[in-house]
Design brief:
Layout: E1 2-5, H1 15-30, E2 35-41, E3 53-56, E4 58-59, E5 68-75, H2 79-82, E6 87-90, E7 104-108, H3 109-112, E8 115-116, E9 123-128, E10 143-147, E11 156-162, H4 171-180, E12 187-190, H5 192-199, H6 201-234, H7 237-245, H8 250-279, H9 295-321, H10 325-329
Parallel strand pairs: 5-10, 7-9
Antiparallel strand pairs: 1-11, 1-12, 2-11, 3-5, 4-8, 6-9, 7-10
Helix pairs in contact: 1-4, 6-9, 8-9
């Protein structure tokens, strides 16, 4: 379960007041039955439109020592546990890490491959896994995390990990925050699945349209393949009758007809695969988590059309081999 909170500047205009408010809310959220972890961050991942950046000097990036611009956010001690972001090295924030103590920070894996040069302002206490902060279609970038109690943002997003269905606790965070300060309403209360769904909403409709057209095209292809192959085989009833009359076994005739029919179908599928391989690159911008030339999809469609073609060959060929040779010989 997630929600966002923007404390009013009039009442929480200083960093100390915002940090105290966020800490109080986190402690109250942890006391909710069914909550196993609760944390806060400047902005939730995936749906974040823009990313704040700060320069970090690193070794090995360039001879002149030019800084790398790393995206940054402020997080609380339990945020990574709540979001199940793995700790790769080091330690988590502790209660001792707060305003007035040594500045601490985390690096994500992408940034951690670089060595910080003379990190005198911050102590790097750990490395956490990469997160797709800007969106599912955006690769993880160099990012670091500051302690939210040391650098409290003007607004924060909260994440609550639960042992029950998150949606069942939708009212609990509202009640907890209003008990602390009735003048600070929270907003965008939704599950992380809801956040994920919203992040792809702009692409969902065109993909649904494409899926509908693709499904219709696939169905028409299956009907077309079945109709053409079935008609072609049915036209060979006269030929099959002659072969059977001359002593050919039904199984031999069946194999011959099916083999010839499938050769034509496989040739057509091969041409279709080449065309699809080229054309699917046009919709690559709408995809993430799967490539435009996904081998599983290509294999599945090829097997589906092959199965339909095999059935279209087998049914009329089987029917033709059952026809009495004398009747077949008189078929036109």
């Amino acid at each position: 379960m997630t929600f966002e909170l923007a404390p009013t500047a009039l009442k929480y205009g200083t960093e100390e007041k915002r940090a105290a408010l966020y800490q109080t809310i986190i402690e109250r959220l942890r006391s909710i039955p069914g909550v196993t972890a609760a944390g806060a961050i400047t902005s939730l991942p995936i749906a974040r439109g823009s990313v704040n950046g700060l320069p970090i000097k690193v070794e090995g990036r360039s001879g002149s020592g030019d800084p790398v611009i790393g995206g940054y956010q402020s997080v609380t001690a339990d945020y990574f546990r709540a979001m199940e972001i793995p700790l790769i090295a080091g330690r988590y924030f502790t209660e001792g890490d707060r305003a007035g103590t040594a500045n601490v920070m985390f690096l994500n894996q992408t940034l951690a491959v670089l060595d910080l040069k003379n990190p005198t302002l911050f102590e790097v206490i750990g490395v956490v896994g990469d997160v797709r902060t800007a969106g599912l279609d955006e690769a993880a970038f160099e990012e670091f995390y500051l302690h939210l109690l040391q650098y409290p943002p003007a607004s924060a997003s909260f994440a609550i990990k639960t042992t029950v269905a998150p949606a069942s606790l939708a009212d609990a965070p509202k009640k907890a925050v209003l008990e602390i300060d009735r003048d600070q309403p929270l907003y965008r209360v939704k599950t992380m699945e809801g956040v994920l769904a919203d992040s792809v909403a702009d692409r969902r409709f065109p993909m649904l349209i494409l899926t509908a057209f693709a499904s219709t095209a696939l169905l028409l292809s299956m009907l077309g393949v079945y109709g053409v192959v079935s008609y072609t085989i049915a036209q060979r009833t006269h030929e099959i009758g002659i072969r059977v009359a001359l002593g050919a076994q039904s199984l031999q005739a069946l194999r011959l007809v099916i083999g010839q029919g499938m050769k034509l179908v496989m040739f057509g599928i091969a041409i279709g695969m080449v065309a699809a391989f080229a054309l699917t690159r046009l919709m690559q911008a709408l995809l993430f988590g799967v490539s435009a030339t996904d081998p599983q999809t290509f294999t599945l469609i090829a097997l589906l059309l092959s199965s339909v073609a095999l059935l279209a060959c087998w049914i009329p060929a089987r029917r033709a081999t059952k026809v009495d040779p004398m009747v077949a010989l008189h078929c036109e």
